[in-house]
Each structure stands twice: as structure tokens, then as C-alpha cells.
Amino acid sequence: MGSFRSMPRASASRCQTDAPEAGKPCGIVAGVSPRAVNVSIRTHARALIGFTVFLSACQNLPDAYGPPEQRRLIPDDRPYRIHRVMNMSDADAPSRFVRDISLGLAESWRWTGQRPAIHVFMRANDGVRYLIDFALPEVTFKDTGPVTISFLVNDHLVDQVRYTEAGSQHFEKPVPAEWVPAGRESTVAAEIDKVWVDPRDGAKLGFILIRMGLTQR
Description:
The protein is α+β, with helices and mostly antiparallel strands. The chain folds into 2 domains: about 60 residues, no CATH class; about 130 residues, Galactose-binding domain-like (Jelly Rolls, Sandwich), CATH 2.60.120.260. Helices cover about 15% and strands about 35% of the residues. It is built from 2 helices and 11 strands. Strands 1, 2, 3, 4, 5, 6, 7, 8 and 11 form a 9-stranded antiparallel β-sheet that branches. The protein has a two-stranded antiparallel sheet with strand order 9-10. The longest helix is centred in the first third of the chain and has 26 residues.
């Protein structure tokens, strides 16, 4: 890029407030070709704009382009930690059902029977937690009244909870590592003490299941 010191300067005088003489460009000194002056001005103006943009780009690079922060793995930073929670809307969900879960999907949930259960595979067994999201619909709860639900992993009782109101529910609790064999399938289940019986066909309904399974923390 050329030096600004070597750029020729066209002599010019400041325009007066009154109108310039007809036929002569305002401010151009006699003896200098107006066409040459215009070409010189346009050329150096482009050079000045380009240099200004270059400087601006160099000085205003966003922080996002800096080098990423180097992250050191520590013993508790396990990349294999994953969720083994089955959403009822998952395409492969029915293949993991063990019992008492309807094959009919309604939006993102399914009806259960009295003892719904699924199979999940856990690669590791440290920091495991039981997790379930479900609902007790008003239409069945008004007949059954308060219910008690047991939550189990491989036939071990994680906890029992009594529910006295209808509505959406969430349950989550740690599971002892010895209950979940690493590298093998585990059975995650729930059991409601009272089911609703359809008076028309005798179908027995437990609760609405949204998702259930094991996760690691």
C-alpha cells in the first residue's frame, strides 16, 4: 500500500457563499484539469476508505474468535454419563416395555396398568437416580381417591409415596449402586395400589406415564 505522503494534492480554495462563476467548478484553481483532479480524488478516496476498513477490522475483532478455553478433565468429569430415561413418545419405546404400558400413544403419554415396567441398559452404576414423570388424571382420581405408588429398580423398593391430589407429578431419588449392575439391563418399575376400572369393558387403568428410567448425576 502506497504512502499517504506521496499522494498529490490538488490546490483548492473554499467555496464562497455566493454562486461560483458559471461553467467553472467551485474551488478548482485555474490551470489544473478538472477531469484529472476528479480522477485523483476518487482514486485516493478509495484507498483511504480501504485502509480505514482494514484498521477497523483489525481493532474490532470480537472476543468469540479468540482461542477456546482449554478444559482439563478431572476424576468426576465422566464423558460417558448419559440418561437412560425412556420418553413414552420415543419411537423405540415399545421395544423396551416389560409390562402394563399401553401401546397406544396419546400425544406424549401412555396409560399404564397397575405395575408398569421398562428395561434400561446402564453402562456404569455410580450416581444413579430413579426418575419418573407421570400424572394422576382427575377422571380416575375422583373414583379411586388418594393412591400410593411404589417405585422399584430390579425389584428393590426405592420409595413409596402417597398422593392425595390429582395432577402432574415428578419423582426422583438416588439408587444404591449395588442395585444396578454395570453393563447389564435393569428393570425400572412402578406400582399403584389402586387402579381405576372402566365400567364399560372392565379395563384397569393406573396412571398416565410420560417418561421413566434411570439417570446419572
